[in-house]
Write a structure and sequence with these properties.
This protein is of the alpha/beta class. It folds into two domains: about 20-40 and about 385-460, Arc Repressor Mutant, subunit A; about 65-345, pyruvate-formate lyase- activating enzyme. Helices cover about 35% and strands about 20% of the residues. The protein has helices at about 20-25, 25-35, 55-65, 100-115, 140-150, 170-180, 195-200, 205-220, 240-250, 280-300, 315-320, 360-370, 385-400, 405-410, 420-430, 450-455, and strands at about 50, 70-75, 80, 90-95, 120-130, 155-165, 185-190, 225-230, 255-260, 300-305, 310, 325-330, 330-335, 340-345, 350, 355-360, 375-380, 400-405, 435, 440-445. A hairpin with a 2-residue loop joins strand 15 (about 350) and strand 16. Helix 4 (about 100-115) packs parallel to helix 5, helix 4 (about 100-115) packs across helix 12 and helix 6 (about 170-180) packs parallel to helix 8 (about 205-220). The longest helix is centred in the first third of the chain and has 20 residues, at about 100-115. It is globular.
Length: about 475
C-alpha cells in the first residue's frame, strides 16, 4: 500500500498513477521531502492576511451574506490546563479559572456583536469548538455559550456539532454535559502512546485514560470520535508509532488525522523545551508515516486526502467518494458552507469575499469587544485569481488532481491560463511527481503525499513571502 491516494473519477478528478512509485528515482525525491511549504488549509494562507483590517469591511461582508445559506461556526478557547511542548497553537496555561471565566463573558459578548451584524437569523451546518482545550471550560460555562448560540442561530437537521477534548483533564461531569448539549463528534489529541515519547513532549496519557473517555462519550450519545496522531516526535520510532496505531484501532475511532510534527521553535517558544537531538531525521519520519498509514489501511480505514483516515461508513469517507469533501482550517471536512464565522481570540473566519482573523492577543481581543467592536486583527479580501487558485489548490489537496481549464472557465479565465505555472511544474513532471495532460493535472503516486509540493506551484504569494513553513513530509 503506497501512501499516495486515489480519488474517485468524478468532478473532473482522476485517480493517481499507481505506476508512479516504480518509476521514481528515490534520490530525486529526497530534496522534496525537506522542502518547506504551507499546509494549504486556506488560500491565500494566513501569513498573508493584512494587519489593521477594517472591521467596517467585515461588517459589509456579513451584511452581504445570503440568509438562506447555512454557515459554519468556530469557537476558539485558547486555554489549556496542562502544557504540551510540541504544540504550535496560540494558547495560555489556565492555572486559575478566573481568566477563563472572564474569557467566557467576552465570548458571549462577541457572539452578540457578531449576530447583530448578520443580515438575518441564520442556520448552522457545522459547529466546532477548538483550542487550546474547550474542555478547560467548566461544564456550566460550556452550556451557557451553547445556549446563547442556540438562541441566536438555528441548526440544520444534520448539523455536525464537535469539540476537542483533553483526556488528561476532562471530568466525568463534562463528559455527561457534552452528551446532553447535543454534541455528536469529539476529537482527542492522542499523538503517541509510547511513555518515553509522551514524557519528551510533556503529554502523559495512558491508553486506558483515552479509552475511558471514548467509552464515556459514546455512552452519552457522542457517536463520532476523532483521533489526532503525530509522527516525527522526539524519541519516536516506527515500532512505537505502529504500536500506538494498534492501540488506537482497538478503540475504533471514526476518523484519524496523522500529522507530521512541525518543529518551529522560532514561532512556538514552548517547543524549545524539546530536545532537537532526539528528533527523527527525514528518512525516519518517512518510515514512520508510511508504516502508520499502512497500518490504518490494514485496520480497515479509508485513506482521506494526504493525512487523514476514516471508516468506510463515516461521512468523510462518503464525501470523498461522492466528491463533496472540502478542506479548511480543521483539515479535511464534510463542511460545504461557504461562510465560516469565527469567535474567540485568534479565530479565523471566511466569507465569499475574503478571510478575517480575530486579534490573537486575548487582551486586545477583549478590549475591542468591550468597546463594541468586532475584534478583527487581520484580514484579506479576495482579489485577482485568488478564488480560482484556491479552487485548484483545494482540488489537489483533496483529490490529487485538478482540471485546470475547467476550474479556470468557472472563474472566467481562458483555456491555458496556467501556462506560467507549467514552467514551475516542469521539474515535478520530470521527476514523476506530477503529470499534466492537456489541462488536467494530477499528483503521481510516488508512495508519498506530494500534494503540497504540487499545490505550491499555484501559490502566487509564496515566493514573495518571508513566512517559514513546515517540511512537506
Amino acid at each position: 500500500m503506497s501512501w499516495s491516494l486515489s480519488s474517485p473519477n468524478h468532478n473532473n478528478t482522476a485517480g493517481a498513477n499507481t505506476e508512479g512509485a516504480a518509476l521514481l528515482d528515490p534520490e530525486r525525491l529526497r530534496p522534496y521531502l525537506e522542502r518547506a511549504v504551507p499546509r494549504y488549509t486556506s488560500y491565500p494562507t494566513a501569513p498573508h492576511f493584512e494587519p489593521d483590517f477594517a472591521q467596517a469591511t467585515y461588517r459589509t461582508w456579513l451584511q452581504d451574506l445570503a440568509p438562506e445559506q447555512p454557515v459554519s461556526l468556530y469557537l476558539h478557547v485558547p486555554f489549556c490546563r496542562q502544557l504540551c511542548w510540541y504544540c504550535g497553537c496560540n494558547m495560555k496555561l489556565a492555572s486559575r479559572y478566573a481568566p477563563v471565566a472572564a474569557y467566557v463573558e467576552r465570548l458571549l459578548a462577541e457572539l452578540e456583536l457578531l449576530t447583530a451584524a448578520l443580515p438575518a437569523r441564520m442556520s448552522i451546518s457545522h459547529l466546532h469548538w477548538g483550542g487550546g482545550t474547550p474542555t478547560a471550560l467548566e461544564p456550566d460555562d460550556l452550556e451557557r455559550v451553547m445556549a446563547a448560540v442556540r438562541d441566536r442561530f438555528d441548526f440544520t437537521q444534520d448539523a455536525e456539532i464537535a469539540l476537542e477534548c483533553d483526556p488528561r483533564t476532562i471530568t466525568h461531569t463534562m463528559i455527561e454535559r457534552i452528551g446532553t448539549l447535543g454534541f455528536n463528534r469529539a476529537s482527542f489529541g492522542v499523538q503517541e502512546f509510547d511513555p518515553t515519547v509522551q514524557a519528551a513532549i510533556n503529554r502523559v496519557q495512558p491508553p486506558q485514560m483515552v479509552a475511558d473517555c471514548v467509552t464515556g462519550l459514546r455512552e452519552t450519545g457522542v457517536k463520532g470520535i476523532n483521533f489526532d496522531l503525530i509522527y516525527g516526535l522526539p524519541h519516536q520510532t516506527e515500532a512505537s508509532l505502529s504500536q500506538t496505531v494498534a492501540l488506537c484501532a482497538e478503540m475504533a475511532p471514526d476518523r484519524v488525522a496523522l500529522f507530521g510534527y512541525a518543529h518551529v521553535p522560532w514561532m512556538a517558544k514552548k517547543q524549545r523545551l524539546i530536545d532537537e537531538a532526539a528528533l527523527p531525521g527525514p528518512a525516519e519520519r518517512l518510515a514512520q508515516a508510511q508504516g502508520a498509514a499502512r497500518a490504518f489501511v490494514d485496520a480497515g480505514y479509508v485513506p482521506i486526502g494526504i493525512d487523514h483516515f476514516a471508516r468506510p461508513d463515516d461521512p468523510l469517507a462518503i464525501a470523498q467518494e461522492n466528491g463533496t469533501m472540502r478542506r479548511n482550517f480543521q483539515g479535511y471536512t464534510t463542511d460545504v458552507a461557504e461562510t465560516l464565522l469565527g469567535l474567540g481570540s485568534t479565530s479565523i473566519g471566511r466569507t465569499p469575499s475574503g478571510y478575517v482573523q480575530n486579534a490573537s492577543e486575548t487582551g486586545a481581543w477583549a478590549r475591542a469587544i468591550m468597546e463594541g467592536r468586532l475584534p478583527i486583527g487581520r484580514g484579506l479580501a479576495f482579489k485577482g485569481q485568488d478564488r480560482m487558485r484556491g479552487a485548484v489548490i483545494e482540488a489537489l489537496m483533496c483529490y490529487g488532481s485538478a482540471d485546470l481549464d475547467a476550474i479556470g472557465a468557472a472563474h472566467g479565465e481562458p483555456s491555458g491560463w496556467w501556462a506560467h505555472e507549467a514552467s514551475a511544474l516542469a521539474p515535478l513532471i520530470t521527476d514523476n511527481i506530477a503529470a499534466l495532460d492537456g489541462g488536467h493535472l494530477r499528483v503521481q503516486d510516488t508512495g508519498l503525499p506530494m500534494h503540497r509540493i504540487v499545490a505550491a506551484c499555484f501559490d502566487e504569494y509564496l515566493n514573495a513571502s518571508r513566512a517559514r513553513h513546515s517540511v512537506a513530509v
